[in-house]
Amino acid sequence: MNCGLSAERRRVPDTHAGDYLPLIKLLAPQGEKRLCDVIRCDGPLWERLIEPLMLAALNTDAAQGSAELAGAIVRETLAVGGRAYAPRIADPSLDAAFIAPALAYLAAHNADLRIGRRVEAVQTDEARALGFTVGDEAISLDADDAMIVATPAWTTPGLLPGVSAPDVFCSIVNGHFKIDPPAGAPKFVGVIGGTAQWLFAFEGRISTTISGADAVVDMARDQMAAALWADVAKVYGLAGEMPPWQIVKERRATFAATPDQVAKRPKAATRWRNLALAGDWTDTGLPATIEGAIRSGHKAAEIILPLLN
What we know:
27% of the residues lie in helices and 18% in strands. It has 309 residues and is α+β, with helices and mostly antiparallel strands. The strands form three sheets. It has a five-stranded antiparallel sheet, sandwiched between helices.
């Protein structure tokens, strides 16, 4: 493990270098094991590092989560040193970081975009995709056309019978407060023991996140806002009344990253030679994260692009 554990200041408080050794087990393939089947799920290291990290990445009760996916996280972060797990924040927004540049690129290349309309059906024969229906518009594919289906896990099996997909999901709750963070406030703070798990400071707003939020997702919005604001006020040393707020509940934010649900993830390649799947719920080797979604897109492109040349 290349994470500087010989230096006490680099370790989680109240832990010893030897406490980290069991994580080495996760470097090997874990199959259908849960994380609690492989490592100890209690103590300071678990409570202050492993559980918060795995809960954020798996969006599922960390102990019950897939040890295989947890191992992928360890292999690509903790096992390769601090630079591999330095925080990356989409500032000022995910839209600015990902969506707006993608739309601008597509527009510059004369792509025909249809936004805000549901894909109602995909037509196939035994060998290839023939077309699809968007709203009330039927679009046919020519013999040399190909397509990538990147619809949600709960939609895709209805469009493509025979394609498997996870069917149990976990929620995420985000709270946003219209207030400027204090000067010098850290951009990104992990919270232990609060309602919020992560705080993000942006110009004009402070945002909060609760992963694996099924236990609290049904809380009244005003109660949720008050609980999250209490964490924000304590962390950033803020006083006074709660500012204007917004609570966003995503009940099917990700698939439940348990071994049985992981087993239902499909590969990007399908039995239709000109159709590939994409999405963070497909079999990317990572949990349902932005990194996994990006990898799924790359894999789908690797399958489809040779067909277009």
